[in-house]
Design a protein that fits this description.
alpha/beta; eight-stranded parallel β-barrel; 14 helices; 8 strands; 13% strand; lyase; lyase activity; AIPM/Hcit_synth_CS; transferase
Length: 326
């Protein structure tokens, strides 16, 4: 018989939570969140103890107007020791802007699905790789860390499953360029736990020196299950989004990323150490509807943690007396 999984007993094991809501979440919103509110949200997340915060995206303001204030936000946030402040950059100009704004890490994105890469980035995979290789060289010359996020690792909404050999081929090409941070992204919420476990375990075994992050969406309700499957396979870094914000324009019906406060809440109950203050995180999430003008998916922001107790009914003593009089 196989040995029973130990995923259910965290036993203080460290899990690094990496917040992507300020970028992956807000970029999907129609309402522009004022710059000062973005800065305040980032500062609140820093105080909450997130290991990494993706603050913004240095893309064209025309392409993503919701993040047109990238330089101001990145320069004016209050940085906490031990927290990495990262940003998505699409090209050399974006990388230059990010480095000038004192970004700790550049997050680069391309897809392991040729169809998705062309539809989403308007480039072939080889064109994307050539452009990102230039950014990697620039960052290395400036002594700035690089992470590469590979989209559609667990499936493409247009092509279906992506072969593991194709995924690992792209990982190897970036590793050969000196990249030591790779995010395996379930961009469109197609991942399922057994698939996640197998691929995560294989990737970690093949590249033990690479810092792998897992990035899941909750499109089909398997977000937490996928996180646990990845932990069982040895993963210890996860992207998540405050309030469960996010989505993908090429995944009809897609919901947001896995929710930061829901994952932190679940892992804490199981004995894992995320280093995150759940109360601070929930308080930050509860501000979101006021900023974006609509409800958020987060169940923890609505219901509170498991032991958020409520007062007994006002007539409880009368109920007791009637019960005892029977």
């Amino acid at each position: 018989m196989n040995a029973p999984s130990t995923v259910w007993q965290g036993a203080g094991r460290r899990i690094h939570m990496q917040e992507v809501g300020l970028r992956d979440g807000l970029q999907m919103e129609k309402t522009f969140v004022p710059t000062e509110d973005k800065i305040a949200l980032c500062n609140a997340l820093s105080v909450a103890g997130l290991s990494k915060i993706e603050v913004t995206s240095f893309t064209s303001p025309t392409a993503i107007p919701a993040l047109k204030d990238a330089e101001v936000v990145m320069r004016e946030i209050t940085r906490s020791p031990g927290t990495v402040y990262t940003a998505l950059v699409p090209n050399l100009r974006g990388a230059e802007r990010a480095i000038e704004s004192r970004t700790d890490e550049l997050n680069l994105v391309m897809s392991v699905s040729a169809t998705h890469n062309l539809a989403n980035l308007r480039m072939t995979q080889e064109q994307s790789f050539a452009a990102l290789a230039q950014v990697v060289a620039l960052a290395q010359g400036a002594n700035v860390a690089v992470n590469v996020s590979l989209s559609c690792v667990f499936g493409c909404p247009m092509d279906g499953d992506v072969a593991q050999a194709d995924v690992f081929g792209w990982v190897q090409r970036f590793v050969d360029r000196g990249v030591r941070g790779i995010t395996l992204c379930d961009t469109t919420g197609m991942a399922y736990p057994t698939q996640v476990h197998q691929l995560t375990a294989a990737a970690r075994a093949r590249w033990p020196g690479v810092e792998f992050t897992l990035h899941f969406h909750n499109t089909r309700g398997m977000g937490l299950a996928n996180v646990l499957a990845a932990i069982d396979a040895g993963a210890d870094r996860f992207d998540a989004s405050l309030g469960g914000l996010g989505g993908c324009p090429y995944a009809p019906g897609a919901s947001g990323n896995v929710c930061s406060e829901e994952i932190v809440h679940a892992l804490a109950l199981m004995g894992y150490d995320t280093g995150v203050d759940l109360a601070q995180l929930v308080a930050a999430a509860q501000q979101l509807p006021g900023f974006i003008g609509h409800d958020i998916p987060s169940q923890i922001a609505k219901a509170g943690p498991r032991l958020a107790l409520h007062p007994v009914p006002a007539d409880f003593e009368a109920i007791r007396e009637r019960a005892l009089a029977r």
